[in-house]
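User: Here's a chain of 484 residues. Predict its fold as tokens.
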Amino acid sequence: MAAAPDEASDRTDLRERPTGWLDRLPAIAVGVALVAIAAAAYWLPGSERFYNHFVWQAEAFLQGRAMIDWPVQPSAGNPGDAYFQDVYPVYGPDGQPIGALLPFPPLPAVVLMPFVAIWGLATDIRAVSVGLGAIDVGIAWWALGRLAVSRRIRLATTVFFAFGTVFWYAAQLGTTWFFAHVVAVTFALLAIGLALGGDRAVDADVVRLPRPGDLVASATAALRDPGRLIDRRQLAAGLLFGLACTARLTVVFGAPFFLLVGGGGSWLRRAVSAGIGTAMPVAILLAYNVATTGDVFNPGYEYQYQLEARGYPSLDYHANWGIEDARYLPQNLVIMFLEPPMILPSTTPSSVAPAPVCTQPDATRGLFETACPIATPRDIGMSILLTSPAYLLVIPALRGRRSRLVAGAFLAVVGIGLVNLMHFSQGWVQFGYRFSNDFVPFALPLVAVGMARRNRVGLLGLGLIGASIMVNLWGVIWGNLLGW
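Assistant: Prediction complete.
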């Protein structure tokens, strides 16, 4: 009898032969268990925050307007304007503020609208974030199931995503900036899973550039019958991807993935189908910007840039540079790949001001001792290789044959990462490197393929994933202790 696909992929190493129980479990049962575990883990470490811009935006949408109430007076449920950073004030004829617009894409507020319709401004955005983040773990399990990898590798990669990346920190926190990441990941994972499901040979096909004659022939055939250019599944994948972009706009630079991966059978069909799907929500976003601000790109970004550049000189922003500027690459590359934690610090990092620690001569340092810590995260960010060392499992995928899957996922990660690295800010205040949430959906297939090409999860994989989980647990605890 022929071996099952999961067995065949692991048979080269006795340590990696399936023990049987994991493969016999229904995939949906494993997915539900992962969602339940993630929901518990994301909920337990949290503490309350007041950064809930999208709740106010959802209420404004429900009332038929785009402008939120602002200034916000302090109340029992909200500290007021001190916590309403990152808004774009709108002034009346008398020069007084009459409200504000958010500079962020609006999909997170749309997601919150059903909850705000019931609970109003009392809606707990953190609870929604925890719930949606746990669902994202289930979606990742489903999407990775479209790959020809063993059940062990699929599980290991999902666990890495759920607890070994800064997605854990984002989902359990749920404040404005982090909730946007959670929403974007939802739709990006759905798009990736749908594309993978329509392209079963995606990791077997080596990348080959289309010949000019083939392109001409495809274009000629399309002119005769335009409907032949549309693959419905790829169109749906593009639509979901476009929705992800309306939560985090930089996700749009992951588009090369859908040029190389998905249904349609050719570069042209994949590109046209996904392109049309993506263009619809992105066009709506741009129309929304024009309708609310008069500009295609929200001027609130430039407004906030100038405020932060002048208000936080220690962050080394330059008000005369662009919001996206290649001159930011050197300092941001250091944050992304080299920034260490604070070891034996004399102060604790804070978004307001450093607090002196270890002033007592006989003070004993502790792992989570806020008065005298052994180490603490840096609020400007930390190296992705320190917080999620299991990303190194991508290397075997890149060293092997350049399949369409590997090429598409790699181009998506590099495209998104490069644009974020040129951004003036790298996500401060944060644990780790939160902008990595923009490309983590595209990095997960690379991690899975990297392990598959080693024919096992192995001790190396388990060690790197375990280390990633421990570091992110440490970061989540510290983030809450410091009130980030």
